[in-house]
Amino acid sequence: MENLSLLNKGQMGTVLKIDGNLKLKKRLNALGCLEGTQVTVLNKAPLGDPLVIGFRGFSLAIRKTDACKISVEV
């Protein structure tokens, strides 16, 4: 188990848990990023912030600090 920010471009993982504040959890759940969702890192900025992830047919830019709170299984 590792966090989403550690995945490299092109790697896929399954969301195991979303830690952090309630606002982040609600936002991701509303977009369909739930436990069990498969996500792919589509792109990373040169310094790693932000990341662009893909899941359920669309792309989402997410801050590295928020990606650190999403536990995934590769």
Question: How would you describe this protein?
Answer:
The protein is of the alpha+beta class. Helices cover 19% and strands 41% of the residues. It has 2 helices and 6 strands, in the order ββαβββαβ. It has helices at residues 22-31, 64-67, and strands spanning 2-3, 12-18, 38-44, 51-55, 58-62, 70-73. The mean pLDDT is 91.
Question: How are the SSEs ordered, and which strands pair?
Answer:
Elements: E1 2-3, E2 12-18, H1 22-31, E3 38-44, E4 51-55, E5 58-62, H2 64-67, E6 70-73
Antiparallel strand pairs: 1-6, 2-3, 2-6, 3-4, 4-5
Helix/strand order, N-terminal first: EEHEEEHE
Number of helices: 2
Strand order of the largest sheet: 1-6-2-3-4-5
- Percent strand: 35-45%
Q: Which structural class matches the secondary elements?
A: alpha+beta
Radius of gyration: 11 Å
Mean pLDDT across all amino acids: 91
Spans of 5+ residues with little confidence (pLDDT < 50)?
A: none
Helix content: 10-25%
Shape by Cα distribution = globular
What is the count of β-strands? Answer: 6
Characterize the biggest β-sheet.
6 strands, antiparallel
CA-to-CA gap between the ends? 7 Å
